[in-house]
Design brief:
The chain is mostly helical and about 140 residues long. The termini are far apart. The longest helix has about 35 residues. It has one domain. It is built from 5 helices and no strands. Helix 1 packs antiparallel against helix 2. About 90% of the residues lie in helices and about 0% in strands.
Length: about 140
């Protein structure tokens, strides 16, 4: 399990680093790959949390929300690759609605993860409360 974690960490960080640093890699396709690598990093750390059994509920909830949000998006992308253009055009308005719904659903993942983490992690809530109190005390003085 450690080998999988380390290889995923190294590979995804390397992908993000190369795309970020090399200006010639700043294309739409590479931004998509960057996004996938970042999502894989999140999943990698969720897997690590699950394995060490410290915070299994937030890790599992984040993993399920990740798959629930991104699986339909990737399934539609696969359909785009498999179907020819005439078939997609014939679907017309239904296809556009499906595509918009799936795109919206994929962005929900960005909202769900912090909410789930803050709801389910008592340590995070305590730290957030401490930071909030420090910030309020500074602004009042």
């Amino acid at each position: 399990m450690l080998c999988i974690f380390l290889s995923s960490l190294f590979g995804n960080l390397l992908t993000c680093f190369v795309i970020y640093v090399d200006k010639s890699m700043h294309t739409v396709t590479n931004y998509y790959l960057f996004n996938l690598a970042a999502a894989d990093l999140i999943l990698t750390f969720a897997m690590l949390i699950e394995v060490y059994d410290r915070v299994i509920n937030p890790g599992m909830a984040m993993t399920v929300s990740f798959y629930g949000c991104w699986l339909p998006f990737n399934a539609v992308r696969l359909l785009i690759c498999l179907l020819d253009t005439k078939q997609l055009v014939n679907l017309g308005k239904r296809w556009r609605l499906l595509f918009q719904a799936v795109n919206f659903n994929s962005w929900i993942s960005s909202v769900l993860n912090p909410v789930l983490f803050s709801i389910m992690s008592t340590k995070f809530r305590k730290s957030l409360k401490n930071v909030w109190n420090i910030k309020i005390k500074r602004t009042r003085k």
